[in-house]
Give the backbone structure.
Amino acid sequence: MLLTITTTHVPATDLGYLLHKNPARVHAHEQSYGKAVVFYPEATEQRCTAVLAVEVDPVGLVRDRRGFATTGLLDQYVNDRPYAASSLLTAAMNEMFRSALNGRSADRPELVDRAIPLAFEFPALPCRGGEVLLRRMFEPLGYAVEARQLPLDPDFPSWGESAYFHVTLTTTATLQAALSHLYVLVPVLDNSKHYWVGEDEVEKLLRRGEPWLASHPERELVARRYLKHRRSLADLAIERLVEADGTLGEEAPNDQAPEIVRGDSKEQSLERGLSLNDRRLAAVAAAVDSLRAASVIDLGCGEGKLLKVLLPSKALSRVTGVDVSHRALEIARDRLNLDRLPKALQDKLALLHGSLIYRDARFSGFDVATVVEVIEHLDEPRLEAFARVLFEFARPKAVVMTTPNREYNARFESLPAGQFRHPDHRFEWTRGEFSAWAALQGGRFGYDFRLEPIGDEDAELGPPTQMAIFTSLA
Ligand code: SAH
């Protein structure tokens, strides 16, 4: 398998200093899975190309029992490992280009931070997810992507296309940044389970993913695939990325990652016309009131807007907020003036750092749980875990839940058709979808539910926000 790296930075032979590999020589290294070689087919002032070639020994891999999952007997011996860029290539990158990946150059340290023109060419890059996914991975990082899908066998065109692409990525970046992108994204595109992932892979992902992965729009997909769909590890990584990014709910302050700020202001400005935010808070507070609750837990409390409304209520003796984002909780703490509140109110309020997709004993024992504009931020496959955490383990007497009504989006003139109100939304449900989900959970866990509109209802499309109120039958 091959990777070529070309620069036209002048003098182009600086690439040799950056890679710690003299262009005049061939550098070879035996690895447990084969042999890695670096050489330079071209090294002039104007243009310099380094090639990383890895000769994989598939039989040796089996012999070493490096944990290759296989589907049958033969594919241990006959597989794409020798030619497809995969985690073996990135393992070789790590071995051969370690200083460059770590941003060190002994002889030319000043080069390390220079953004230079770079082109990376992969003759066979497996892209499970196709060209669309390839672009979604690299374009947000500023790459121009050229991709040509390879036929399964050029002699038999009727067999169709393979999952492999000839790919050229061009950018102007520091070599370290670009190598770290490749290090993380090549195995993600491959998405096969060739190696066992342990806890230390989370650290590797976060280290190599710094500082770009936290604000990458596909960070969750990246983490999940990189960690080979080992859910617990991926969740851990995602949470740390979310924290690093400081992704907040609806009202991020200006020092947040630019995408998020844009997203937030988009959702806010869409909804501002209706002052939907205030109406939502008022509707949820009224629902809590009507349920005659003495204790409330606000799951995904964000910056504590609802907590601030609920806290003064005399009927409530306990108000707790939970969020996965440390930043959001800090803002909530400020917003609520927690440190200057009278002692009685301080005792009444708790802010917990936690995730809604893990069972957590601190969530139990409340009359009402509120979940305001949160579920649409959870990946759909994780809703199942959330439903159990909420209805089975936390088991409040009642739940008040809100989520956007996707049908209503057609009324937001500035929102292009098919787009969600916020880039972090993983889905937005129609009234039918929300109601079906609520009915399913109610049936499974023994809750009745009713739906209520929030905001001005459109005769045809319904309200902008939908609310479900669940009450326990037990
Ligand atoms: N309820 C608040 C915030 C809504 S934004 C309001 O109405 O203003 C969604 C919030 O859910 C964010 O603060 C986000 O950090 C939080 N969140 C997302 N995934 C979460 C998870 N797995 N566990 C806990 N909180 C989560």
